[in-house]
Amino acid sequence: MDENVRPGITRVALIGFGYAGRVIHAPLISATPGLVLSVVGSRQREQVRLAYPGAEVLSDPLSAVRHPGVEMVVIATPNDTHASLASAALRAGKHAVVDKPFTVTLAEARALAAAAADSGRVLSVFQNRRWDSDFLGLSHALATVSIGDIVELRSEINRYRPQVRDRWREQDVPGGGLWYDLGPHLIDQVLVLFGSPRTIQADLQIQRGGASAVDWFHVVLGYARTRVILASSMLAADPSTRFRARGTKGSLIKRGSDRQEQQLLRGQKPGSAGWGEDPDPVMLIAAEGAPPTDIAAPPGNYLRYYEAIRDAIRGKRTPPVTPAEATTVMAVIEAGIKSSREGRMVSPDYTDAERSAWSPIAASP
Description:
Dihydrodipicolinate Reductase, domain 2, 21% strand
């Protein structure tokens, strides 16, 4: 029997076969039991057929979104198309997963969340970095050891790309630039830990010669006396520390980053031997002069996102990232743009549902 028509199988249309679709989403969908990549919306017909010969290839994205043979649509297209394609998927009666950022504006995000509620379909944003080994390691350490009241968290992802590449992500287009690229990931992780911040002070800059989109940011999120610093640069040739948490009784440091994206780039199958393993531990420094203690980081596993989406479609659980969580992230993104533009601290504009969407896992005095 064709696995595309077996009971219990969710047939998936992937829209976009660029970097995110080809390297990240397609392998994860294909490796998730119960999901089948049936349709790909892309003009790269030959590349898709070589990699996924069983998938139907359609050059028109809307035709792929509305395909009668699929139940779920995954959108991995340029950011300014996310809202329209996800809305079309919901109108066609499909469940929808949107690559981050959820949308380009907060208004779009809220409209999309409302459309999902009206449709009764599952809508989620692909916040895969909740399942990074470095974030899982930090979360595990915060749950198993005490550093007292957390007063500061620094979260940083840097790259060294001095030459501006000819990619829409690095151009001055709606949803382009580093704040829309890495900002949603860093914000989402912090919201998982602490919930929605009260204030944001953001500095978004263009630093590389020839660049036209944000390629550096330094952002401070305020939680009573706790401060969270988010930072990223495209001109960081030096190694950086991924996480640094400081509390009243000690500190936690995670230097190394998750390796799953590199494994995907090498063609390693998700879930295979060694998948997501991280040899770099979280370091606990509990007292002045005391030797540090290493806490092993759990393996990262992006498959857990798609497994949770599969189960949400089957009615077994809520989506791994809810529309209310996705809109909260967009509220912080938009507030950061306003803060940087006006040169002042601002408070994000949350609805009551967005403010209460989170169940923080770490203490924030």
